[in-house]
Amino acid sequence: MSTLSTTNIKHPSSGSNNLVLTSGGATQIAGLTYPTADGSNGQYLRTNGSGALSFATVTTGTQWTNGSIQTLSGTDITFSSIPSNAVFIQITILQMSFNGTSDLRIRLGDSGGEESTGYVGRSYATSSVATMATNAFGFEFTNAAAYIYSGKLEFWNHNGNTWISEGRIHQETANDYMGYTGRKSLSDALTQIRLFGSGGHSFDNGSVTLHYLTA
Fold first, then answer.
1. Using an 8 Å Cβ cutoff, are 125 and 180 in contact?
2. pTM of the prediction?
3. CA distance 88 to 155
4. Which of 4, 8, 36, 103 makes a 20 to 30 Å CA pair with 188?
5. CB-CB contact of 108 with 157 (8 Å)
6. CA distance 91 to 139
7. Which has the closest alpha carbon to 126: 91, 96, 171, 166?
8. 29-87 pLDDT per residue, tens
9. Alpha helices in 73-127 (DSSP H)
């Protein structure tokens, strides 16, 4: 049985097209170093631009994520794990109510924390319009305790750290329709959203779910 003792094989027509077997078990062909182990099903070979190849997973340009349902309780709920590359966010609300007279408020935050200034917009109900507070997005029509609401809140990344938001809810108890629309510029990438009552009351019914699109 013969043994190949050399670790560098050259093609006779070109001294640069070498086959090199390294001491660590890697194979180099024409200056490209190949992985020493197989990748996973569906992966592809990727270069680092310096001759090293590795297996990588194919990623899509955008991805829609549905979060888990969160039961509403206490004075607020915070979604604090929003990816910094999210471009659209939706929060669905099912049969939410407070234990006192409060309107729903929504604040955005980034790595520096929640921001309580710079919210610009208007709120509305079936038969009236009101100026929205500047310390949060939200609905400006005070309602009685135990009123039930279902609907959705949406947030679009306009550019950079500026977000456009719209909320629409159905007041099931009084059969009314309420909404708001507005804008907010953050200091950094959006990473958190907090929901709470304007009067400091607690949620006593309902659930919410966070959905988002990344790009």
1. no
2. 0.72
3. 6
4. 103
5. no
6. 15
7. 171
8. 878 888 888 888 888 888 898 888 898 887 766 889 999 999 999 999 999 989 999 99
9. none
